[in-house]
Amino acid sequence: MNIVVIGTGYVGLVTGVALSEIGHDVCCIDIDADKVAKLKKAISPIYEPGIEALIEKNIEAGRLSFSTDLKAAVADSSVVYLAVGTPQKQDGSANLDYIEAAAANIAQSIVQDTIVVVKSTVPVGTNRYLKEFIQNQTPYRISIVSNPEFLREGVAVHDVFHGDRIVLGADDTAALEKLEMINQGFQIPIFKTALESAEMIKYASNAFLATKISFINEIANICEKAGGDIREVSAGMGMDSRIGSAFLQAGIGYGGSCFPKDTLALNHIAKNVGYDFGLIQSVIDANKVQQLKLVKVLKTHYSNLVGKQIALLGVAFKPETDDIREAASEVIIEELLRCGAKVSIFDPVASANMKAVFGNAIHVADTISEVLYQADAALVVTEWNEIKNIQLAEFTSQMSHPVVLDGRLVFDKSEMKQAGISYYSVGTGELEINEPVYI
Ligand code: UGA
C-alpha cells in the first residue's frame, strides 16, 4: 500500500517508519528541507532510541522515503496521514493553523478519491470540519479517519508495535475497513468508533493519566505530614487491578508536550460547551504547585538562596528524551535564578536545549561529578539511569554540602542517611538533616 505521511515531527516520523516496517511503501513529507535531507541519511531530528536503525533498515528495503514535494507524493497515493503539530494557543485552546494549511495543500494535490487519516490531537469536531474543508476544494471524494496516537516519547519504537489498542474513528465504513487492513500488520486490537469519540478518547486518556499523577502527588504531600511512604502507598494501590499500577509514580509532576497541553485543551473544549470541568482544573493547578515542590523544600533548608550553588540532576521532562517542553526543570531554574542561586545542570542529552533557553545564566556540566562539585544542594529532576546509579560517595566527596532533594524517588532514604547525606524525597517525610545545617 502506498501511504503518504505529512509531518515528520515526533508522531509523523514514528508512524511513517512503523508503517514501512510492517510492509507498506511510505513517503514522509516535511516542509523543512534540512530535516528531510538528514532523514534521507537516516539521521533522526528527534532523540528516540531505536528510530534511526529502523529508518535505515526501511530506506534500504526501498519502503521508506522522505521528500519536501507534497504535491507529487499525494498525487501518488489514496491514503494520506496528517501528523502536523497542534500547539497550544495563549488561551489553552489548540492552534489549528498548521493542520489547516496542510489540509489545504492536500486538497490542491489529490488526483483521486482519498482517505485522510488524522493522527494529530485535535479538538472534538475538528475532523468533521476538516473533511468539509478539504471536500469543498476538490471534486474527488474525501473520507476522513481519526487515528489518535498513544505513543510515549522515549519508548515510541516499543509502543508503536505493542500498543494496547489502535483507535480508528470514522463515519465511513469503507474507509474504516481500509484503515483496518492497513493496520493489520501491527497485530494490535483495533477499536472502531464514531469520529468524535476517537477525538475524545485521545484527550480523555491523556487527561485521565494526568489526573492519576496529580492524585498520587497530592497523596504524597499528605503522607509527608500524616505519615506513610508514598512508594508503599502507590504499590499497594496499584495491586488493585481496578486501579492499576501505571502512572502512580509520585514526583514533581508531569511535563512534556502532551499532558500539559491536552489537559488545558480539554478544559477549553469543556468551557466551549458551557461545562465547568472543575476536576481537570484542579489537576492542572496541583501539577503547577508540584513542579516547584523541591524549591519549596530547599527554602526550608536555606532561608536565603543568594549565591547558593544548586545542581540539577536531569532537565528532560522524563528519561530517554532530550525534550524539555513544559518540564519541571524549567520552572525550577527560573525560580532558583529569581532567588539569586547559581544553577548548574547535568543531563545526558537535554542540556543543550536548556542552555538555549537560559544561555549564560546557567552552567552546563558535562559530568555528574562536575555538576555536583561544590554544590550546596542537588535536585533530582529526571530519573535517568546515570542519575539513579550515582555512587553515594559522589555526593559527599564533591558537594560543599551533601543535601539531596529527590523529585523522582530514586534513592533509598536509609542508605542516604547512612552515607551522611541530608535527604528529602517526595512523599516520604520531611527533609532529614544528616549533616550540620548551614544557613
Ligand atoms: C503521553 C502519553 O503517555 C502517551 O500515551 C501519549 O501518546 C502522549 O502523551 C501524547 O499525547 O503524545 P509522553 O508525554 O511521551 O506520553 O510521556 P509519559 O511517559 O506519559 O510521561 C508524561 C509525564 O508524566 C512525564 O513528565 C513523567 O515524568 C510524568 N509521570 C509519568 C509521572 O510523574 N508519574 C508517572 O507515574 C508517570
TrEMBL record:
Main enzyme class: oxidoreductase
Record carries keyword ATP-binding: no
Domain UDP-glucose/GDP-mannose dehydrogenase C-terminal, residue spans: 311-413
SUPFAM superfamilies cross-referenced by the UniProt entry: 6-phosphogluconate dehydrogenase C-terminal domain-like, NAD(P)-binding Rossmann-fold domains, UDP-glucose/GDP-mannose dehydrogenase C-terminal domain
EC number: 1.1.1.22
Pathway: Nucleotide-sugar biosynthesis; UDP-alpha-D-glucuronate biosynthesis; UDP-alpha-D-glucuronate from UDP-alpha-D-glucose: step 1/1
Pfam families cross-referenced by the UniProt entry: UDPG_MGDP_dh, UDPG_MGDP_dh_C, UDPG_MGDP_dh_N
InterPro entries: 6-PGluconate_DH-like_C_sf (IPR008927), NAD(P)-bd_dom_sf (IPR036291), UDP-Glc/GDP-Man (IPR017476), UDP-Glc/GDP-Man_DH_C (IPR014027), UDP-Glc/GDP-Man_DH_C_sf (IPR036220), UDP-Glc/GDP-Man_DH_dimer (IPR014026), UDP-Glc/GDP-Man_DH_N (IPR001732), UDPglc_DH_bac (IPR028357)
Alphabetized UniProt keyword annotations: NAD, Oxidoreductase
NCBIfam families: NDP-sugDHase
Protein name: UDP-glucose 6-dehydrogenase
